[in-house]
Amino acid sequence: MTERGTVPRTILVTGGCGYLGSQLIRDLAEDSRFDATVRILDNMQDGNHAALMDLPDRGRFEFVEGDILDRATVRMALAGVDAIVHLAAVVRTPMSFDKPTWVQQVNHWGTLSLVEAALDKGIQRFIFGSSSAVYGPGGPFVETDPCRPQGAYGQSKLQAETGLLAASQRGLKPTILRLGILYGAAPVIRFDAVANRFAYLAGTCRKLTIYGEGKQRRSLLHVGDASSAVQFSLANPDRTVGEVFNVVSTSATILEMAEAVLCDEPEATVHFTEQDIRTHLNLEMAGSGLETLGWQPSHTLRSGMSELIKAFRGVQRQDLLVGSTE
């Protein structure tokens, strides 16, 4: 798989203490196809120290605290590395226009700086965690459809993709995974996206807010399926190098997500509002490319939501509390 051997012996995971990274580092360590040392690079800006706790005994882990914009730290983190899984990023919702300069600096220029450092070290294998946000609103999109991202996040991811593919002319062997909106339980979890937000609201006995009629669609990806897609790509370089893949577990409307919650929390209530017009848009892509090669998602919307909701079982309803609110 690399110039140093048939399989990577040391895998660097940037952003390894984030949502997907916290799950991936565990799965890589327990994947017998690799038997690799998993090196984690993370700036710990979000304080996700739980990602480094209770790691599986089988794994061999190394941790470097630092930023991908720090060239000295990156050079140190790349020493002896055979493959890179690049997840470090400023994460924003697809239609966010927040802090565009910072997003561009980290997601675009930070990625290209990492690529240059990898090429200098002779590291070829590079898995990039891109996003469905590169397509912009609409869909369902396939990999060959034109990309029209709106907002700094989607634009920065697309620009990073372009740089990666250009670097393939200089020896880089990239695989680009356009990940759906992540949901589901992991050692570190984000609750800003709609599916996880619904699970959190239901688990803490509050109303689920739906913007518009709830018929707008989202392409969802369970965090466990995202991890398995990365592992599949690493294990199958002959079929994935130089390719761009959509990675999706399921496509669902906002109403269908709410219905999945109600299966576990039938007393949950739904509130409809018209406050945010941008959330009314469809954000959907078709997940076919990677599946034709043999990768398959293993989580359903119902099972993924149920697992997360159950984690909040200790929270009691506030119906009897005087002056209680949502």
Write up this protein:
It is a single chain. The chain is an alpha/beta fold and 326 residues long. The protein has two domains: 10-183 and 221-247, NAD(P)-binding Rossmann-like Domain (Rossmann fold), CATH 3.40.50.720; 194-218 and 250-283 and 298-310, UDP-galactose 4-epimerase, domain 1 (Alpha-Beta Complex), CATH 3.90.25. The chain contains ten helices and 14 strands. It has helices spanning 19-29, 71-77, 100-120, 152-167, 194-203, 223-235, 237-240, 254-264, 289-292, 301-310, and strands spanning 10-14, 37-42, 60-65, 83-86, 125-131, 138-141, 173-179, 181-183, 208-211, 217-222, 244-247, 250-253, 270-273, 283-285. The strands form four sheets. A seven-stranded parallel sheet has the order 3-2-1-4-5-7-11, with helices on both faces. Strands 8-10-12 form a three-stranded mixed sheet. The longest helix has 21 residues, at 100-120. The radius of gyration is 20 Å and the shape is globular.
Write the layout of secondary structure elements.
Blueprint: E1 10-14, H1 19-29, E2 37-42, E3 60-65, H2 71-77, E4 83-86, H3 100-120, E5 125-131, E6 138-141, H4 152-167, E7 173-179, E8 181-183, H5 194-203, E9 208-211, E10 217-222, H6 223-235, H7 237-240, E11 244-247, E12 250-253, H8 254-264, E13 270-273, E14 283-285, H9 289-292, H10 301-310
Helix pairs in contact: 1-6, 3-4, 5-8, 5-10, 8-10
